[in-house]
Amino acid sequence: MIQSSGPRPTGRRIRAGLRDTLLSYAFLAPALVLLAVFTFYPLGYGAYLGFTKYTGAQFAQGLGPQFIGLENFKALIADPLFWTGLKNSLKYLLIVPILQFASLAVAVLVNRNLPGMAFFRGAYYVPVVTSISLAAVMWEWVYNKEGTLNWILGALHLLPQGGAFGWLNNEHTALYAILLVTFWRGFGYYMVLYIAGLQSIPEELEEAAVLDGANRWQRFWGITVPMMRPTILLCTLLSTIAAIRALEEVLVLTNGGPLNSTYTALMYVYSKAFQGFNFDYGLASAAGLVVAAVALALSLLNFRFFRSDVEES
Amino acid sequence: MKKAALALSLALAASTAFAQKPVEITFWSWYLSPKFDAYIKDSIAAFEKANPTIKVKWFDKQDSLVQDFLSSVNLGNAPDVVNLNIDETAKAAQNGFLRPVDSLVSKASLTSTFYPQSIANFSTGGKVYGFPWYGWLNEGVLLYNPDLFKKAGLSRAPRTMTELLSYAKTIKDKTGAYGYVPAYKDPNTASFLGYFYSEGLPVYDKAGKAAFNTAAHAALLQQYVNLYKGGYVPEDAIRREAFQVATELYAQGKVAMVVGGPQALNRLKDNNPGLYKSVVVTEAPLGKAGVQTGGSMDLVIPTASKHPAEAAKFAAFMTNNVNQMKFARIVPIVPTTRAAQNDAYFKQAGTDAIARATSLVGASGRYINPGYKAPKNSDDLYKNFNDNIEAALLGRKTAQQALNDSVAYWNANMK
């Protein structure tokens, strides 16, 4: 029998410990209540709705959801539009590594005390706070058949005579054109997170590496990237979840077309849940659950991949 | 005895006070603020003056109207009067969100005030669910750029749809500008289905099944597919509403003709006053059926309204002829009231393009007709239809195959 070698807790100590525990929970309580009301309950109720029939007609008559087991999931499996959406949402993940690498690289570049750097940091952040409707108008000009992108490609002789096309009107290019918009909108956000991470790296490490004769590239891979792994994990997670939940850009730029080439899984959820008065909350919730499960699985993968790296580093 | 008299007088006083307490109703409009604030506020003030026992609280809702409506029903504070369109009214009525207005006002007053077709537009299952309000005609007027016509060697406006399509080719070939932007992908009832109706081709058969896949339907679609594939239509027409694309490009001198309501001219006047001065406004060509298509707004009374009688009174007031005509003088809408067709305002001649367009279409409210009834799960079915039209335009399916596939989907999924 293993016995504790430390001093036995006295009654007073137990009471003090209990008081501290209760006090901790008292401080946590407001946040927990808010989380319970605004996060856990909707989450649980939404998950429950996925197993029910709950349509506009039921809602109008004041009837509650009706439990139907896995029927909604069977309907999803049988609906090619849902699969198209899911496939496109997975394609959307292509943007994650590009976005993360680029924003980290630029964060390193602008994380210096050089004149004008504040302007660059601000400029990169502007798209984050630009409304999507305004961004859509701007990108329409870029992607139009007679738009800026074709003009530039034409001027560089990269576009054959008469080969111009609207990038958002072509089923082979529309998704990638939208990915670029997502890149443009997300870049500044992740860059700011990376700058915050970079500023927490001890300067002595860099100085020691300089003394050891490491060049800039070696310092980036040898010090910056390993030290930034927790931040990279966070940003990659956020970016993966955002990619799987892509909706706004698609909705305003192509509305899922052409030929559903940009139709995402969340568009499916959105259309089933908020489409006029004949909505289907049950089916939308089931689709939402599948999207959430995919996002969770990808997040776990990210965690597994980066976590071991973080531990090693 | 004294006590009884006192109790009686107290009860009378209480009931008088109760009777005099104004009833407050909530009115939700759709995309009317801030441009028409003055008109709405004046109308409400006039109503309240005529009905001192009713107060109206007005909110203008925009893209979140339906979601806000659902939330308000859930929270037990539903609005009393809501502004919807034909499609949303049908959906809301089919799902039980609305009260039939013919149970709140006499059918005779509805039929004497509004065009029969306007009432039919808002009827579902034999009941009327909305007070018809302002409307528009899809083929209302044709406006064209005379300079582009001249360059293309054209001397007059097209008189038929066939001629319009042939003009589109001539203009593009000779000037480089697009002739016309057809409504390939317009939402819901304004979609390509409207072209079937214009050409006298049915959407449903007598049994109520989808039947828009005959050889004649396919031939019509093929004409428009050829136009798209030949580069005679701006590419954006497969992604955006034709009216948006056409009005934008017309203002840039890149489209020669716009078919639509006078509201196109309002945009042109704002965006390119120079081009507005030269625009020619004339009657739009119609399809073989010789009919117009169009849409309309209405005012509905939700099932969850707590004051349906007062709400109906207000909705009837807002949509009466006097108020619709006041609205028509501010913005070129097409009133849905019978009396509007004889109003002198629509008979005045003028050289201004908007005035001319208004005089051409303002009195034509009786023609407002989407051409067919929306099915119950219309959003799913319209999406499938539009996806198939897109597949035909992009060469993934033949016109016949696209229509066959859509009809099969409609008949398998129509509720």
From TrEMBL, chain A:
Transmembrane segments: 21-41, 90-110, 122-142, 148-168, 175-196, 220-243, 250-270, 282-303
Gene Ontology process terms (BP): transmembrane transport
Keyword Aminoacyl-tRNA synthetase part of the UniProt annotation: no
Alphabetical UniProt keywords: Cell membrane, Membrane, Transmembrane, Transmembrane helix, Transport
Domain of life: Bacteria
PROSITE patterns: ABC_TM1 (PS50928)
Family statement: Belongs to the binding-protein-dependent transport system permease family.
Protein name: ABC-type transporter, integral membrane subunit
Organism: Deinococcus maricopensis (strain DSM 21211 / LMG 22137 / NRRL B-23946 / LB-34)
Lineage: Bacteria, Thermotogati, Deinococcota, Deinococci, Deinococcales
TrEMBL record, chain B:
Signal sequence segment: 1-19
Annotated CDD domains: PBP2_TMBP_like
One term under GO cellular component: ATP-binding cassette (ABC) transporter complex, substrate-binding subunit-containing
Key word Transcription regulation present: no
InterPro entries the record matches: SBP
The entry's keywords: Signal, Transport
Superkingdom: Bacteria
Gene3D superfamilies linked: Periplasmic binding protein-like II
A biological-process GO annotation: maltodextrin transmembrane transport
Pfam families given in the database record: SBP_bac_1 (PF01547)
Protein family: Belongs to the bacterial solute-binding protein 1 family.
Name of the protein described by the UniProt record: Extracellular solute-binding protein family 1
